[in-house]
Amino acid sequence: MNDPAEFPDSPDSPDDGPEARGGGARIPGPRAAADDWDVLPEPRPAPAPPTHDVLKSLLGAWALSACSVEETQAVEDHLTECAPCAEEALRLRDAVGLLHPDESLDLKPLLRSRVLEDCLGKRPARIPVPSWATPYDTETARLDALLQDFGDAEWHTPVRLKWFQEDRHTSRRTTVAGVIGHLLTVDGLIATALGLADPLGAHAGSDPTARTEQFWSSSPYPVTRQVREPWREQGHTLVRTVSFAGRGVADLCVGYGDFSLPLGDAFLERAFECWVHAWDIAEAVDYPYEPPSGAHLHRMIDLAARLLPTVLAVRRRGGLAAPAQELVAAGAPGRTLHLEIEGAGGGSWDIALDSPAAATSADRTVAEIALDGLEFCQLAAGHIAPDDAAAGQHGDREAIRDVLYAAASLSRL
């Protein structure tokens, strides 16, 4: 058996304390609990407040709202006590205001169309919108952007719709919501031609004025902001349908009661009316509204110019225009009026005076009219009287009057 004395660390060896073993204890004894301490540790001293020089150096960051919460509080507390720093802070804030001027949060009406045009130019849509439907797509989107932030008060703002009937101005008072209901019901004529659901039901007529009166008197939708959603959804559906329809759909006939238009022209006519009524709404709520782009405006003016001979013939049958001159022979050119439209969307057109089917010839031009593009559109919308159109006129006064009144007769409710 081994002698315990030879193994001083053995558990069997007697524990006579550190002195007996000649060395320190390897495992210290338990420490006293904090509650048993006679003296608690001293707390860490609070950090010193920032000096004047430090706070002054933070004024630039404070003016740019780039300080932390603690720094912002320290600077603002200092400004209440230090007049020179307070003056410097005001100068810095004014300088920041010049670098970052306040701007209106309202989106520019043409922003969406510009963004879409840029995007489609870089990456064409897989199913592109037909060129003749693009003005309608753009104008409905611009009007929808105008309506987006309208409150209840704006939706009930009075709007006066104006048009020219026979030889006099006519108007009708409604609201912003009533205008959108009017657009919804007349756009429904295109929906019907495409085999889509009519917003007025299956047995509604095709006269635009009668349809609008029917909607206003017994609408399935309250004539408030709720009318916006069905109008916008119908517009999306129309554009989507013709985009997938393929070639030939532009020639489909759309009935307007006592006349009809090819589908391509009907989309242009609806784009024109959408813009005109958006203009009416913007004027009622005192909001600026830009005209269509030059390319789209040209298409709308071209449609109006192409319709003028037919409207002139209708007015002549009603005794509202001078009689036509007989053509020398079938197919021979009749009298012509040269229409010059200036500004955005402008161009020149030769208007047949004696028959919609008659050929035109520069040799038989009896009169000329020059008009600004927007002024011509106001005339065609019935917003200005023919006698008030500031037109450059030359030639046959009777022919000029007949064409100006025919242009105003393009308008309707």
TrEMBL record:
Keywords associated with the record: Transcription, Transcription regulation
Stretches assigned to the Putative zinc-finger domain: 57-86
Pfam families: MDMPI_N (PF11716), zf-HC2 (PF13490)
Signal peptide (residue range): none
Compositional bias (Low complexity): 1-10
InterPro entries linked to this entry: Anti_sigma_zinc_sf (IPR041916), DinB/YfiT-like (IPR034660), MDMPI_metal-binding (IPR024344), Znf_put (IPR027383)
Domain Mycothiol-dependent maleylpyruvate isomerase metal-binding: 138-282
Disordered: region residues: 1-51
Name recorded for this polypeptide: Zinc-finger domain-containing protein
Source species: Streptomyces antimicrobicus
